[in-house]
Write a structure and sequence with these properties.
This is Methylmalonyl-CoA epimerase. By secondary structure, the chain is α+β, with helices and mostly antiparallel strands. It has 3 helices and 8 strands; from the N terminus they run βαβββαβαβββ. Bound molecules: (S)-Methylmalonyl-Coenzyme A.
Length: about 140
């Protein structure tokens, strides 16, 4: 079903501060940055800078406003790991397979994620307590 771990998402209160920590202290590089209004997030992807297509990235997720799922997560849990994301080649086929196997997805149809990817999420209650995203990236991203 899955190609690889695409990214692990960390909820952070302030994106610039988190980027500073992960680049200056941890030595990662920023690979991509964008705002996703629909998801209520300001996000940055970080990694080694010369990584292979299958190397997982780390996604820093800051809330855009107080209605954001990330704002709710931070209020409840504080900063930390918010999601695990698996990459897929065909999100429609994988969604059908997961539903057939009893995993409920949050959206009836995929929404737009990082770099225009098609994304959906399985509820943590169906996946052993982990918010699981699936993503079909746009070729080249
Ligand atoms: C909530 N729960 C979690 C969780 N969020 N468990 C593990 N990981 C998480 N991230 C658990 C709570 O502890 C609680 O369990 C139960 O689920 C209900 O939680 P809640 O606090 O009432 O939260 P809800 O139900 O309002 O929202 C949870 C839900 C939401 C997963 C539906 O966060 C959501 O819609 N997420 C998908 C969208 C998203 O996360 N977007 C931001 C990333 P108990 O046992 O206490 O009942 S955007 C992104 O990722 C894009 C840009 C991309 O990568 O392309």
């Amino acid at each position: 079903l899955f190609i690889c771990i695409d990214h692990v998402g960390l909820a952070v209160p302030d994106l610039d501060e988190a980027i500073k920590f992960h680049t200056e202290v941890m030595g990662w590089r920023v690979l991509h940055r964008e705002t996703n209004e629909e998801q209520g997030v300001e996000e940055a992807m970080i990694g080694t800078g010369d990584q292979l297509a299958e190397n997982a990235q780390i996604q820093l997720l800051a809330p855009l406003n107080e209605n954001s799922t990330i704002a709710k997560f931070l209020a409840k849990n504080g900063p930390g790991m918010q999601q695990l994301c698996y990459r897929v080649a065909d999100i429609d086929a994988v969604s059908a397979k997961l539903r057939e196997r009893g995993v409920r997805l949050l959206y009836p149809e995929p929404k737009t994620g990082t770099g225009g990817a098609r994304i959906n999420f399985a509820h943590p209650k169906d996946t052993g307590g982990v918010l699981l995203e699936i993503t079909q990236p746009v070729a080249g991203h």
